Amino acid sequence: MNRLLLAFLALAAIALPAAAQPLPPVPLPEPEPETAPSPSPSPAPSPAPSPAPSPAPSPAPSPSPSPIPSKPWSEPPPPPPSPEPEIGLPTVLASPTGRLLPAAIIYSRSSLDTSGGLASDLRVGLGDVAEFGVELTDLVRARESAAAAPHRLAPYLAATFKMGLAEHRLFTGQPALALGFRKSFEHEIDGRATRIAELYLVGTKRLGDSVELHGGGVFWDASIRDADGAGNGAAAEDFLHDHGVRRQLRGFGGLGLRALADAQILVDLYWVPEFCYECTDRQIRLKALLSWGVRYDITRSIKLDSGVRVPDITAADLLDAQIFGQVTFLHRGLRRAVDHLR
Q1: What is the DSSP track for 285-318?
Q2: What is the pLDDT of residue 296?
Q3: How far apart are the first and last CA of the chain?
Q4: 188 inside domain
Q5: Which band of pLDDT confidence, cut at 50, 70 and 90, is reported for residue 12?
Q6: Does residue 278 sit within a domain?
Q7: What CATH number does residue 116 fall under?
Q8: What does the CA dihedral 161, 166, 170, 172 come to, rounded to 10 degrees?
Q9: Are 312 and 288 a contacting pair, CB within 8 Å?
Q10: Cα–Cα distances in Å, from 118 out to 81, 87, 121, 153?
Q11: What is the per-residue pLDDT across 174-190, written as a single tens digit (0 to 9) for each?
Q12: Domain tally for the chain?
């Protein structure tokens, strides 16, 4: 115990003088000198303003390129169909008009009357300036003698050709003009052979939307002969032109009044030859034919005519008058086919 106490005191005596002496200074690292901030650079002087440039001329517009077909070998699109032409009929009731059928329009008319007559007419328009056709007419008549009653020569086959100019074609106000010719084939019956031919010039003028006037002149010729060579008391062959021009030339005319949008009132006067087999002075005479009636437009392509016809107005014989009916068809299929080919 004493030994421990002595050791403790000895240690304390050593430690006290050492604690009283100061500790030697410990060297510290020198601090790094602070760098002075670099002065900010002075702003560069602004350049002198340059003069405003003159406006440059606008470039010329480049032409739009033409469209290039995607398939050069493909066919071009078909042209649009041409408008349907207005069709003026080539006849009033019996007399011709100055109208011509449009190109590739086919006209057909069939008629009958109360005396048993049958007739037909077929034509086609050629290039808007002409038409050609054939017809069977029942208007030609004959009688055995001057005192006998006439009877019809039917069917009487003839060919027709007509050319002309449409209305206003040459100048404003010009009427429609047509020059037509009709010639029959020889018709033989009861031992007699007959032929007819006619040349006519006709004009048609429209007045407003409701009235049409038709007028012209016709030059007829005809012949009659005995097919068996026997004269039977009359000349073996007689020609109308042997009796003078004044017996061949006649005037004719017609009037059309549109009473409704689809109906017309028609009147016309025409001339047809009549043969007399046993007459010794003249065997061929021209007779005035008067017709009046109405035309009803059922459709644009179908027309229906009906009326009264007096074959010889100089005779004043109403018992000889006929009530007739005729239907007209206008076929446009050929024209559409032609337009498709163009």
Answers
A1: EEEEEEEEEEEEESSSSEEEEEEEEES-GGGT-G
A2: 98
A3: 148
A4: yes
A5: low
A6: yes
A7: 2.40.160.40
A8: 150
A9: yes
A10: 38, 25, 11, 11
A11: 999 999 999 999 999 88
A12: 1
